[in-house]
Amino acid sequence: MESRNARLFSLIDGKADVVAIVNSGDSHIDHNFKYFTNAKSGVFEGSIAFVGPKKTTVVTSQLEASSLKGLDVNVKVFGTRKQFEKIVGSIASKYKTVGLNFPAVTYEGFRRLKKSFKGKTVDVSEEIAKCRAVKDRDEIRKIGESCRIASRVADRIPGMLSEGMTESQLASKLSMALYEEGSEGPSFSPIVSFGKTTAIPHYFPGKLKLKQGDLVLTDFGGMYEMYCSDITRTYVFGKASERQRRLYETVKASQEAAFSGIKAGASEKDIDAAARSVIDGTEFKGRFIHGLGHGLGRQVHDGGPVLSPRGTGTLEVGMVVTVEPGAYIDGYGGVRIEDDVVVTKSGCRLLTDAKRELTEV
Fold this sequence. Notes:
It contains ten helices and 18 strands. It has helices spanning 4-12, 32-37, 62-65, 81-92, 107-116, 125-133, 137-160, 167-180, 242-261, 268-280, and strands at 18-22, 48-51, 56-61, 74-78, 97-100, 120-123, 191-194, 214-220, 223-224, 227-228, 231-237, 293-294, 306-307, 320-323, 326-329, 333-336, 339-343, 348-350. The strands form six sheets. It has a six-stranded mixed sheet with strand order 4-3-2-1-5-6. Helix 4 crosses helix 5 and helix 7 (137-160) packs across helix 8. It is elongated.
């Protein structure tokens, strides 16, 4: 199996001699650092990973060095700023061109690197994103387990619902359930909405209380060995009205249309269009107000692929993507159904397996 380093440099194709993943403070840690080092712990503030075609060399403090023990990386430890500059300079001076992930580098991080390296720097963020978009077998295994955990939680949610509970209380219950089912924690702050607030796609749960006849929308995910899941299910608390049922079944049919089109070589834009046309062919035309899906991996939004009207790429075997059509009616409510799939040569394989039929609680 091709290593991540080798894959990255096949994409870079001579554009850079080495890639430097530069971390600054705790709010500016590049997720690619652990992707290329395979570190499972550590923060690595102020550290740099020099990713070469065959080997990665990490410049870090004594505080973080223990997190790299047993990994297939070279480790250079600094104690002072002068030592950091000397080590970075000795490594970088071997190369004419250093590739950087420009969107993730702070000015301070860039300044620290350039103080030790006077050569040319180029942006390789697009190549890094393409490298990460295709998952290897181990990544798919981890994402798959994360998805199974989230699916078990989704199937438990109907049993958590009770009249008068608040959105925040349900968010707390499902977050706890993630830990109970084996997750390392939530992959993002869960979205939980009741009734009219289900029409707000990126809603933050509040004190609204659950009542009979409400739509209940939950969008959440967990972490397993640093890999994310992302699942959305919409329920009805009580008996569904005919309008709620039509809305749900329309969104479900939209998702099925997307599943049918996903395979290696398929256009991101065309898959979105297939799902969107289902909703736009009903009374809910124009109510699908966001893209169909995004890449999933170490981050919930893990770069490519992007299933949307603005998508420009094609799918490849091993890509993991969410499929999340929705329809939203202001003042009434909305439905979204989201699952995670891995792209195969002839189709896709569902990684989430929670019940997708309309559930009345």
